[in-house]
Amino acid sequence: MPEAASTQSFTKASVRDADVDGRRALVRADLNVPLEGGAVADDTRIRASLPTIELLRDRGASVVLVSHLGRPKGPDPSLSMAPVGERLGELLGTEVRQAPAVVGDQVSEMASELGAGEILMLENSRFEPGETKNDPELAEALASLADLYVNDAFGSAHRAHATTEGVAHHLPGYAGLLLEREVTELTAVRDDPQRPLIVVLGGAKVTDKLGVIDRFLGFAEEILIGGAMCFSFFKAEGRDTGDSLVEEAGVESARKVLEQAEGSDTMLELPEDLCLGQEFDADTETRLLNGVDVPEGWMGLDIGSNTIANFGKRIARAGTVFWNGPMGAFELEPFAGGTRSVAEAVAAAPGHTVVGGGDSVAALQRFGLAGAVDWLSTGGGASLELMEGRELPGVEALQDA
Ligand code: ADP
Ligand code: MG
Q1: What is the pTM of this model?
Q2: Sorting pLDDT into bands at 50, 70 and 90, what band is 10?
Q3: Residue 181 annotated in active site
Q4: Closest to 233 (Cα-Cα) out of 216, 250, 217
Q5: Is 381 a catalytic residue?
Q6: Are 131 and 125 in contact (CB under 8 A)?
Q7: Cα dihedral across residues 175, 178, 179, 183: positive or negative
Q8: How far is ligand 2, taken at its centre, from the CA of residue 70, in Å?
Q9: Which residues line ligand 1 (CB under 6 A)?
Q10: Residue 206: which pLDDT band, with cuts at 50, 70 and 90?
């Protein structure tokens, strides 16, 4: 059983304390936004990056911005940063210059021409094969573009890439405002939550969330489990799961978790009823199951109304709620009820509420509740790894405060 961790405050140097006047800052932001027809379809991540960029400009720095976008295997014009730079320029009310590449002579020249407050957007960092390999030569070439490095890309901080980690070995590295806030908010929940702490987990893959379960078993008062991941637990209990999505690789681990939960101070709550469908389809026939043994020909696609009531009651009396993962196939309206109800319960909860990245954030946005929680993380994988207690390479590489 993991020990309760001690309270840790943010120990890295913050951009707020950096001397930036007249200097050039290389800013790694998370500008990995969805595109549609060559334009930015959702600018949430661009907006989240504005405070750090604005702080640097206000304090007389010039800014060289870098991010990845999508998963290109090399240069790919359809994944150019140009539309992102354009949208950023609109939001800031200033011109954002677009570099033709990530590094190289032309890019160096454009960077050296920047005046105070001016911004240069580098091309998609994944156009360089050295990015994901954390190639030291690429890191050095990036570092040569600026006087200091600011990492504000929390959503990529769990990856040791050239723009997120390697470059910090060649320049004084500072945390951006978003990254600092993310680490502070999530660390507070992990190490020093107001009690009782209720952890709500869902989504498709139990193996993604085992680290978090491990961490909180024996530390949280309650862990509530919904989503397809509950079927790995039901299978481990020897129940019928019908045609439900069962991650087989997680069944053995789920069995161990159930065993550990027995002897721990943490209450592990699984669904007590389900909403079933015959197919993964919004038009499929549906039925409610008062129980959790799923008959042949049916799949569990959402939690049922008794489970919704139970989870809602527990969320309402929490001191802290940490939620990650939808309760069902919420993209399909007939199976969105459990996720919507949990989202509403989290939004209305008097306790401190934090939602970790990925599909749960998409769900909150879809239900118009994104503004009603205390902290909405921009990082899916990064927030899970931080909650597990793992070190994030993109944070570790920065200077100590
Ligand atoms: P997150 O991104 O929040 O970590 P995951 O990526 O693990 O969550 O899972 C999200 C997906 O899980 C959603 O697309 C949702 O449709 C799916 N899902 C949740 N519950 C079920 C279920 N009972 N059956 C099938 N799919 C489900
Ligand atoms: Mg997901």
Answers
A1: 0.93
A2: confident
A3: no
A4: 250
A5: yes
A6: yes
A7: positive
A8: 15
A9: 202-205, 208, 227-228, 245, 300-301, 324-326, 328-329, 331, 358-360, 380
A10: very high
